[in-house]
Amino acid sequence: MKIDFVGKRNYFIALSLVLIVVSLISIFTKGFNVGLEFIGGSELVIKTTDNHTVADVRSKISGIRPEFEKARIIEVHALGQADQRTFSILVSPKDEKGALRTYNAEEKAEISSKVEEALNGKVVSFNEVSGDAADEIKNLTWKAVVFTLLGILVYVALRFKFAFGIGAIIALIHDVIITLGFYSIFGIEMNIAAIAAVLTLVGYSVNDTIVVFDRIRELGRKFKGKDIASVVNDSINSIIIRTINTSLTTFFTILMLLLLSTGSIKSFAFGMTIGVVIGTYSSIFIASPIVIKWVKSI
Amino acid sequence: MRSDRVRLIVSLALLVAAVVAMLLPGGRPATGIAKLFSRVKLGLDLSGGVRLEYRVDIEKGTENPSAVVDDVWTVLRNRLDSAGYTEAVVKKSFRENNSFIIIEIPDATDTTKAEKLVGSTGLLWFGQSVDERDTDPTLNPDDVNLALREGAQWYPDKDGKKWYLIKKEINNRKDLTLSGPRIIEAVPRIDQKGVAYYVVSFTLDRQFVEIFKNITKELYVPEQVLGAGSTQYQLALKKRLAIVLDDKVQFVGFVVSPIEDGKGQIRGNFTFDEAKELAAILRSGALPARLEKTTASLVSPTLGKDVLQQSLNAGIIGAILVMVYMIIFYGVMGIVAVIGIFYALIIIFGFLSGTGAILTLPGIAGIIFTIGTLVDGNIIIYERIKEEIRAGKTPKAAIEVAFSRTLWTLFDANLTTIIAALFLYYFGTGTIKGFAITTIVGIFASMFMNLVFSKFLLDAMSGAIRVRKAGGAQ
């Protein structure tokens, strides 16, 4: 049984263009739900003699305000105070526009007394802190992006043909924009775990595209002179079981993570789920048509 | 087959090396299976670490205090990065009109080393040493007077055992001072003279090369003078170059040839770690403000212990599902994939244990990804084997053809990923580096597993491979 993957390629290209435009619009108008690792927030430090675990603290305080559900809770062992437990609770309160705001004095007093009641302790400090991961993104400047893309382009162009390099890169950019778009549209928190998911997607997308290209290269040599579109279609068909199996096995792991985890890991699982689907889709429907358009024969 | 024996030996050697690296002493205390991972350094998000808080002492009337705090942040970030604490976190905090810097260092239990690195202001200057003492000269009125007469000051060395009388103006020339120069390069090197120790060699920024040349010209003492009569030697002793960091003398010595290229060395019987930290401080420049330590404490994982446990459970269930799927779909060959997953994991953790690279959440993402590519590699090979068997080849011949055909597929796919990861490692910081490291190691491990060890295993099991005409293998 042979499926005609490349015949309807223009529909898929149109679909991708729509997805990219929608993603870009959302990214630039709605923006991201940025996590506290990037923007920081308000840190409340509480001392208690009760024997709470981090999970206890989370369940006890999550009802105080919506932002407390996503609080970063860390147990601090102050040197030389073994009988007391100290927890640092970091939250990012947002205003209506989704921008970080600071609590005013009354709110602080109200929150402090609620937390003290919930945990039977004493709030020792409540102040604003900067995000600790903002520099990660600042440092991952255009240089890193451009050089990474260039590195892939050069390697793929050398091992295959220049058009294959272009195809791989466009597929990659396509995947990253759409995945970021999904983060923006669904308001999933952007945090370190989300960045990790996007990075993983970069690897996955490139890897998947190259495997398809490799088959196109092989069949192209075998059937020299055959129409490039049908070579590409045969190639995709001949490795479709591999594509399905690989996507499924990756999907299992990620799905478990999406179902069973909470907090920042959920952002990772979300990005990976979207990424696996988009990455597989783009190597078949985006990267390969570009090759068809640019290459007359292998 | 002979080549299979080579494959087995190389695979086992790598496995043994990884296990040895994991079992070396020096890890966290642990029991049972956890002992295997006790040497893997975990990031702040996974294991917690040390948290230091400093108040930034900004002089009153400073025009733009938040810019000063930003500069302090940048210097500390550079310093921690170049001393190898790339996973450390530096945060700014504000309260009661004061600015604070919070530094969190993963998997650390001892704060002293980090405090030395962070607390040091890092102001480097060059001077002329005119005298020295073995006891504290500031307690001796004669020595105090001597300092006043010379227009110089006594400074202790870094161990506080020796004191040097140092002038900031070389030979009292007002135009010959050099304080807080920008240093473009500083690296620890093995001391050529005393093999057991390290020196720090540095290169000054171009704009300071000329002044440094003039200083060394002024202090230049021909080598033969050092061996000549004692009066000449006594005079030379008053013309020694002193390198002072944070008002502690790092180095005092004769200038036996004027230095024209702005390159110098600080010798001081440093251990490698000391030299590395000193180099980091020199490279990152001086702090624009003094820091005053307010608290030091140990913190639990920033990701939250509860979140970690859930993710671990999810990971284990996911892995089992993958293994079951592979065995159902590929039969005997699926078992090879399962062995491969364990093999690659041991190699990755062996590498992390052996090198002391820090594992963070993005690092784990990298491991999951490489396991994904490992399974993908298996699937590509197995599909090829099935294809060849259906085309009428015997399993043994099919394996040979499948491996020679897929070698370049896997090579290209994996090498492109490694290229991307290398650029991320080079340009990224902290957690992104963490992702890049496990990805690079993981891809190498899975490539090795797929192309070398799997080949051996499949050859050994070839008799048991059955393929139906279409669909799955049995």
Question: How would you describe this protein?
Answer:
The complex is a heterodimer of chains A (about 300) and B (about 475). Chain A has helices at about 10-30, 35-40, 55-60, 105-120, 135-140, 140-160, 160-185, 190-220, 230-240, 240-260, 265-295, and strands at about 35, 40-50, 70-80, 85-90, 120-130, 190. With about 300 residues, chain A is an alpha+beta fold. Chain A has two domains: about 10-35 and about 135-295, Multidrug efflux transporter AcrB transmembrane domain (Multidrug efflux transporter AcrB transmembrane fold, Up-down Bundle); about 40-130, Alpha-Beta Plaits (2-Layer Sandwich), CATH 3.30.70. Chain A is elongated. The two termini of chain A are about 25 Å apart. With about 475 residues, chain B is of the alpha+beta class. Chain B folds into three domains: about 1-45 and about 300-465, Multidrug efflux transporter AcrB transmembrane domain (Multidrug efflux transporter AcrB transmembrane fold, Up-down Bundle); about 45-120, 2-Layer Sandwich (Alpha-Beta Plaits), CATH 3.30.70; about 120-285, 2-Layer Sandwich (Gyrase A, domain 2), CATH 3.30.1360. In chain B, strands 5, 6, 7, 8, 11 and 12 form a six-stranded antiparallel β-sheet that branches. In chain B, helix 1 packs across helix 11 and helix 13 (about 395-425) packs antiparallel against helix 14. Chain B is elongated, with a radius of gyration of 30 Å. At the A-B interface, helix 3, strand 3, strand 5, helix 5 and helix 6 of A face strand 3, strand 14, helix 10, helix 12 and helix 13 of B.
